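User: I'll paste a sequence; please echo it back and then give the predicted structure.

Assistant: Echoing your sequence first, then the prediction.
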Amino acid sequence: MLLAFLTLQPSVFTLSAQPKKSRLQKVEPQQIQQQNKEQGGMTDRMRIMYPTALDMPEDVVWRRDIYREIDLNVEENSGLYYPVEPMGKQLNLFTYVFKLALGGYIPVYEYRLDGTEVLDASAKVDMKTVLDNYHIFYEEKDGKLKVDNSDIPSSEVKAYYLKESAYYDQANSSFHVKVLAFCPVMLREDDFGGEASKYPLFWVKYSEVEPFLSRQTVMTSDVNNAATMSLDDYFTLNRYKGKIYKTNNMLGKTLAQVAGNDSTKLTAEQKRIEAELEKFRNNIFGDKEKRDSLDSLAVADPKQAKKLQKERNQKTEKVKSAKSSSKSSSHSSGGPVSVRRQRH
């Protein structure tokens, strides 16, 4: 028995000498980076410090998806292009997005030949594939990609394709234009010095890059260099300017296809769509009768639209009768009488 006790004693001491495991486990930097990638590159702290705008409701009564081409040579958009190379903390939009994607903070999605975007896991593109496809010089060490600032082709990205959605939110009776995604477009000349060809690189989902855009500013004036705003505010306030090249339609055609590649017809079609959007906005904030009949735009059946209008007229008559009865009762009693409206 004594021999058995002496044999077991060292193991007992060994077990008792081990410290208790702390509840706060040490997390390696690689694990943090992997968690950030799985969450779209955003930590909980970032989500709290840089809250994003609310998503577009799915049950809106009116919505139109529009694709625009944002030319960075246009004055309203030039702040997205400069500086071409980083100047301290100041980066242009493409350099900023490129660095975020290269570090795995945001995913990027394939630009398909038909121009449509699929913003889910099935369409994600690896940045190494992007670098190889467009001959961007990089170094790879320990599985990490590194691209020098001078090798980032930000000077060649002179346009963006942008998808926005104009919609009416009946919950708070407001009209919004929300950016959903954008795609940097590289203009690269061939070896013979011909006309530059367009190379759409990848789609970026706006909701995934939005918290990062809140931390980067853009210049908004040539006269006052102190006039800046965040990139997120720039897009949220729709400070950009771009021509419409496509809308979501049942035929899936671009405006160029609809116009038959006729520049005159294309311009006319663009103006027509802009006029429709402006007319809709004016109907909302303009005449009350037009504003009240807004929900009829979402009704395909004319009979249903008439039914809605009839119910609205009945409610109006009830309010009028309540007002007239309150006046007659006040005259008969000689004292003020308050009538509380019923909510319908």
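The first helix runs from residue 2 to 17. Residues 72 and 78 are 5 Å apart (CA to CA).
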